[in-house]
Amino acid sequence: MGVDRSDTRPLHQQVAQSLRQEILGHDLPPGAALPSEAELCATFGVGRSVVRQAVAGLAGEGLVIRRQGRPTVVASPAEYRRLVQRATGLFEQFANRGQELRTTVRSLRPQAPPPPAETFLRTKETLRLERVRLVDGDALSFVRTWLPAERVPGLSAEQLTDASLHQLLTEHYGLRPVSGRRQVRAVAADDMLAGALGVEPGGPLLLLEGETSDQQGRPLEWFAAWHRADRVVFDIDVSETVETVRIGTLDEAPAPAGGPADLARARELVAELQHLLA
C-alpha cells in the first residue's frame, strides 16, 4: 500500500486517510482489530511514530477505539462520536464519516427570545427553531435555536428537515458561521425534553449553550442543545494554541439510572470539563 512521499500531506494524514477509507468502506468492519503497529509500519513503509499519530487521529474521530493492553478496534455503528467546533455545526461531520444524522423540525415560528438571546442578538424580532437530532433513529439531542428574523427571510421547516442549518445559512443567505462561545452544564430533563429524547423525567442531560457570529462579526444565532447523558460524552483536547471539545456517544460507561446521584455525577463531570477549559 505504502505512502506517496511526493504528496505534500504529512505521512500520518496519508496513513489515516487510507485506514479511514477501509473503515468507511467496511473493508475493516465494526469490531475488527486494526493490524498491529509493526504490521502497519511494514504496510505503509513508515515509522511507529507516524502510525501512532495516524491511529490517534482516527480515535479522535471516533472511528476506532483504543484501550490499554488490548488491540485497537473499529468502533461499532452505535458508538457515535462527533466534534463540536466553536462555530460550525455537526451535520457535515457525520456526513463526512458516512454516518446519517437525521433532523426532525418540531417547530419554527416567530417569538421573542429569552433575555440572554436578546442581549446577544440585539433584537426581539426572532424566529424560534426547535429540532431533534437523531442517529440511526435514536434521538441524541434536542436543539432550540433563536435567529434574527430579518436575516433569514423565507426560512421554512421544510428547508431544515434532514439538513444542516449552518450549511443553509451559508449557501442560501450568505451568512457563514465563523466564531462563537460555548458553555456546558448538567441539567435534569423536564417532561418535554424527556418525551423528545426518550429518557425518564428528571434524568440527567448535558446542556450545551452557545452564541454564533457570522463572517462580519454580526450575531447570527443563539442556541441551547440538550444531549442525552447516557449516550453522549464530552472530550477535550488541549494544546498551547487550541482547545477542542468533542462530543460523542458513550462507548464504555454504563447508562445512568436517572436518579439524583446520576445527576450529581453528571454535574461533577461538567465541573471537571469546565476546569480543564479554564
Would you write up a description of this structure?
The chain is α+β, with helices and mostly antiparallel strands and 278 residues long. The protein has two domains: 64 residues, Arc Repressor Mutant, subunit A, CATH 1.10.10; 197 residues, Chorismate lyase, CATH 3.40.1410. The protein is built from nine helices and eleven strands. The chain has a six-stranded antiparallel β-sheet with strand order 4-5-6-9-8-7. The chain has a three-stranded antiparallel β-sheet with strand order 3-11-10, with helices on one face. The protein has a two-stranded antiparallel ribbon with strand order 1-2. Helix 1 packs across helix 3 and helix 2 packs across helix 3. The N and C termini lie far apart (44 Å).
Write the layout of secondary structure elements.
Elements: H1 11-24, H2 37-44, H3 48-61, E1 64-65, E2 73-74, E3 81-84, H4 91-96, E4 101-110, H5 115-121, E5 126-135, E6 138-148, H6 157-160, H7 165-173, E7 179-188, H8 191-197, E8 204-213, E9 219-228, E10 233-238, E11 243-248, H9 260-277
Antiparallel strand pairs: 1-2, 3-11, 4-5, 5-6, 6-9, 7-8, 8-9, 10-11
Keywords for this entry:
six-stranded antiparallel sheet; about 280 residues; about 30% helix; globular; 2 domains; Arc Repressor Mutant, subunit A; 9 helices; Chorismate lyase; alpha+beta
